[in-house]
Fold:
Amino acid sequence: MQTELHTTRMPGLNISGLKAPLPVIQGGMGVGISVSGLASAVAGQGGIGVIAAVGLGMLEPDFNTNFKEANARALRKEIRKARALSTGLIGVNIMVALSDFDELLAAAADEGADLLLLGAGLPLKVPSLLTPERVRSGAPRLAPIVSSGRAATLILKSWEKYGCTPDAFVVEGPLAGGHLGFKREQITDPAFALERLIPEVIRAVEPARQSTGKAIPVIAAGGIYTGEDILRVLNLGAAGVQMASRFVPTAECDADPAFKAAYVNAAGEDLVLIDSPVGLPGRAIRNPFLEDVSAGVRKPFKCPWKCLKTCDFVNAPYCIALALTNARVGRLNEGFVFGGANAWRADRISTVKEVFDSLKKEYAEAVENHRILQAEAA
Structure:
């Protein structure tokens, strides 16, 4: 058991010497939902704020003619803005499946991001894409996002060839928002629940911990919404959590007010699974755009860049990058909103500080309740 139940204060999170006062990493939400505004606010409250690298260049003037440079330039701008707004820890989420993954990885490392979260694919060759000096110094810290112990083992074995070990792993369960690393039938299968995946990944990482002497914390993600959820996964051995949906309906979130309102107005049944054009299931908030797509209506588009390596843009019924960008700027009739399974629980727009105050209170109450139950059982 990782959590010390004699204290009602959340523990900190240590990733290879990178110390966050609270064990909360804000999840990366792409195409401009989590950039400098939200990331800096989370960092300022003691968590790790995260900028999502995907699709940032879509708001740059030369995106259609020079998408790789536009994306990297926009990412650099957002990291610098976040640094100007907070002295806390800033991470960057980069999808391995992106066609410009290498360029975004280099940009984030060059700008001094504290933590790189690498998901949507297996980052098997990442150490070879960084300079030997960076690999040796551990700057930035590297945390692959996985959905199984097997994936963690594959990454560990691959990185071993480069004399490198991940600084942490994020294990993301099937209750997350956005694209999911599971088959449709696995999403509701208890065998793939986060509670099963956390100890599985911890076991997969243990041999590397033993051989290297490196802590390699495992961070839990997917459906975590309250302080009680945080306590629950820490008690399973996780060192921290990654949370996204709870930070969307905040004043500091970088999305349009209409995007945030979709969370506040959603009911539980509005969170639906979709088939993304990139070949993965995803979780989103039902709206007329998705209903049209489900009915077979095609949304014409031109593809200026093949953003994801797996996208079949010739046969895709719509461009997911364009749909998400439209939603981000408030044009929900031309796009849709991703959200985790608990996104519907938002009932108002709050601030990031209020979210953290609530998480601390919920965590403390959960510890006290656990203590009472233990005393009654004794």
